Amino acid sequence: MDGTRRDRGDEAEGTTPPAPERPGELLRRLRREQGFTLAELARRAFYSKGYLSKVENGEKPLTHELARVCDQVLDTGGLLEEALRPVAQDSAGGARDDDACPYPGLSPFGVEDARWFFGREEAVAGLVSQLAERLRTPGPLLVMAPSGAGKSSLLRAGLLPALARGVLPVPGSQTWPVALLTPGRRPVEALLDRTAMVTGASRRLLEKALGEGGDALAAAVGAAVGTGDAAVSLIVVVDQFEETFMLCPDEAEQQEFVQALLALTRQPEGSGRAVPPALVVLGVRADFYERCLAFPGLAASMQRGHVTLGPMGDAQLRDAITGPAREAGLELEPGLAEILLRDTGLVHGRAVPARAAPAGALPLLSHALLSTWQHRENGTLTVDGYRLTGGICGAVAATAERAYASLPPHQQETARYVLLHLVQVGEHRQTSRRARRTELLDIGGADHEAADHAADHAMDHEADHAADRAGDAEAVVETFTRARLLLVDADHVEVAHEALLDAWPRLRQWIDEDRAALRTRQALADAAVTWEQEGRDTSLLYRGSRLAAALEAAAGPRARAALTSTARAFLQASADQETDRQLTEQRRLRRLRALISGLATLLVLSLLAGAVAVHQSRVADDQRRIAESRELAARAGGMMQDQPEAAMLLALSAYRRSPTTEARSSLLSTYAQFPGNQLAGHTDDVWAVTFSPDGRTMATASDDHTAKLWDTATGGLVATLAGHTDRVAGVAYSPDGRTLATVGRDRTAKLWDTGTHRLVATLTGHSSGVNGVAFRPDGRTLATASDDGTVRLWDVATHRQAAVLTTGDSTVRRVAFSPDGRTLAAAYSDRKARLWDVDARRVTATLAGHTNTVTAVAFSPDGRTLATGSSDRTARLWDLESYRTTATFEGHADMVWSVAFSPDGRTLATAAVNDGTARLWDTTTHRATGTLAGAGLISAVAFGPDGRSMATVAETGQRGVTPPLQLWNATTHEKARTLTGSGESTTAVAVSPDGRTLAAGDSHGSVFVWDIAGHRLVTPLTGPTGAVTSLVFSPDGSTLAGTGEDGTTRLWDMSRREEPKEAATLTGHSGSVRAAAFSPDGRTLATAGSDHSTRLWDTRSHDQVAVLDGEPDAVGSVAFSPDGRTLATGSHDGTIRLWDLRSRTVVTTLARDGQMCRAYTLAFSPDGRTLAATSCDITLWSTDTHQRIARLTGHTETTSRLAYAPDGRTLATAGYDRTVRLWDTQSHQPVATLTGTGGYVSGLAYAPGSHLLATTNTDRAVRLWELDPETVAARVCTLSGEHRWRETVRASSQRNPCD
Fold it and tell me: What residues make up the domain containing 989?
């Protein structure tokens, strides 16, 4: 360089100057003087070797950009740029701007890059329009976009330059101050700092005003930006608003930051300002949408409107490619744009789902264009230049790899530490993190870590190592910043874009190699920062397992080198503290050993005492767990009737605590009490009813926590939908009938598949009970109404909340969509109904006139009229053009709970709670045309889609009493059919041999056939004229036999289960028939009668083949032995007789042994060795010796029913004490006691090949009991997860037993 200066000096003295040195030649000479090869300069400058060779040979010009980079790499002091100045002056005025790169690479466009910003003109215009609206309405404007969509560029290079041009409709707005910030770890400080900087206000006064409240801050900012009548606002642009949640660990500061932004957009009271103190724009990553909804103020702002920035389309992306090049005077080689579009997923001539760039493609595209620009030829961006970059992703990877390769080996290792420090590693994915520059300069000292802690190293030596580490880290940051892969400001460094994390294989490999250890080291770094901030509080140091995990993660030179000095000091302090603790412990142990050595005898005694103590401690712990388990089980039993779902979770907690008999009993009992395990109609008041679109099915909603589906042709129960944990208040079919929506007081809405009857989704978001539900006519949107004062709209396909409609604190009772789907009507407790524009999310009309809560709304089929019902005992019709009342219907004695139009719109039906009627009104003359009565206290009414049928549901006010569900003829107003889920008190039950079918009989002679898997009523059968006393299937399942009090036995052919036929009626007994049993081969049926006889029947000819008489009293039970050779009969005198079926004579009589109870039920064990009989208690007899084996006691009243499990290991017994008890047949000990039967058990039957037990009871329900506790536990957890019970059940304070 000195020689160069002398040449210039000689020139000045007038000597003959040599030929001027071309810029390329100067570059070659300076490169050689510095000892750089062409390949090494290419790696350091990030230009190709071939391109640099052409520059040196004069085949390509030396650009200002290349000169600046080479000056930095070669440390020339700016000679190359200086050599270009005369050339630039000579060509000024006509040369195009070859030297300015119009593509920022991975970095976002800045304000200074506005002239290169293309493709987002419409987005900028829309953003400005929305921002102008904020001059009149408070609240920030949120710009939502996925990562990589370009929201930062939109704000910086689009919005801010537009505002500087004065696009807002306020004179002088182009001079308004602008505060552009990102939240970082301390968002409040960032806001105050930037506001003070751009407004000139005192930072201290702003902080003081914020402490006094949001209004004070708004007033202070308003005073700073303008006084008097001046219309001046501060413009606050918060880019990357998601950092508020990602980087700021203090939730209180998050709240304070959001509240401050909200306050700045509100006019302080009495300010008299024409504009708000500030216009606030928040750039938010789309995946933080729900986090923003958690703040009511932000949610309200989004409801008033927000900007969503999607990926660029084909035309926009093309403009973003060609526009900057055109502005910079560059040309694109034909075909390059099409190749770029192809590589981003947009190809002309091919059908694609959406012609838009994939998320994250823009930064990759920009970086590829930057790399292509570096390979340009004579002002042209070429296809070959693009291919040299490796394409979209290859450009990022290649640039990063070149930057990495340009570093010396020891700095490459430092680069690994630096880049990993800029990555926030999660369990399955990673994101970028912003780091302080001082942190990065502090890492990378692996080679000197041992020296750092050696006592014999001098302080200056350690300082030298620290300086070396800082220099290496600085070099790494500088290298990757020049490559535009990192963004650096005064204090922080961050990855230019998260695309780098996936596009560069080397970085991705570093992350995947040791993800768990990286997470541990990141947690260590955060803990170290807190420790440092708290004055190195020793209570914050790691200890125990956390210290062990941290030491393991930091083991080895590479791992320790990745730590900051603060983290290393924290870890060392933790280790030192642990060492001190261990030394203290060792000293204590030495003293203890010295003491023990002199007290050996006492040691032995102490050890013995310690062993006893440990044993006693374990015993005490077991006893404590047992006691806690029993206490929880008892609590679950008390909740079983009112809160079966909460009781199940509590019982499962008891079982998990200790599987005691009480816990097992509670778990099995509470699960059986779950409505989904009961075959019955509703057992509590019904509040809503609706028909399916095809009219074949009807849905009802009840206080018993269920919705039920009914066949309108047969009146039979189709399915029970159980999962709500409180009253189901509303039901609605989707327009195609494939989905049913239910809402409940448990604050949830649920979607069900009407074909499979399975839960599709549980929608949560309401903070109080949900009362009403309706589908939009297109089926895509669901509306729900709640006591929390909101109407929420849900996307039916994604199950996500689409909008929240709210007007205040008034609860919302019902909702209905207009036929065209544009309007939503909602009934409110403030005595008004409101009409909402569904798309605009705003109220279009408020209908006032009722004097009490509006309880129901319904649109007429033509959409011109709205009907409302109210607690003021009236219903009204409203004209939807004038919004005036056209008719008021009076006559009900209580609140009108339901209104419904007939399909032709000529009739309105109204139902009132407690007055027992539904009334019909002519909508033209407004006169009453009929009354439906005699179906209980009608609570809701609905028309069938054909207009010829109607349905009413009712309340009874009594739990356990089945409310009447009635179908009506809409023309004659007469009852057409009553819907039945079961008959009267159930008296008998049987399960088919294949376990698919269950038959239950009732006290009025009806038999109901159920599908067990689907809990569906298949068909009712007409049985005896009195009560059904017993039911039994033949061994092959083809025949069902039922006995009755009328003295008959009826046989049904069950070969076609859906259409069973009566095969025969067997008569012969002179009194009631009490029981029946098929022989193992199915050829013989035995019946026991009150006429003191047992009769045998041929099941094929239906003829009586024998009469076994001589019984001293009525025969109440009968059973065949498994080999078919013996028949056991039980008499009401308490005796049991065993008959030889060949000779048809009594083999032996088993005496009642002093008991005075009748022999109710008999059952042989599956192996035939034992006969079990119920009487006052349960007696087990040996069939070989005819001696009593055991007596099972425990029932508090007479036992009446028993059944062996199919494997013979368990015996189930039931009695008048309303319990079912399970016994181990080997130990004869109780296994479980099942409660909650609803009445005394009248029937008991096992399903073959399973742990399923069916019982009938006097409360009309058939209950299905799953007897394997582990299966029950798994099902409870599945139900809890599917239905989100932990979020909705009351009294759920216990730790989740399913975790």
Answer: 982-1066
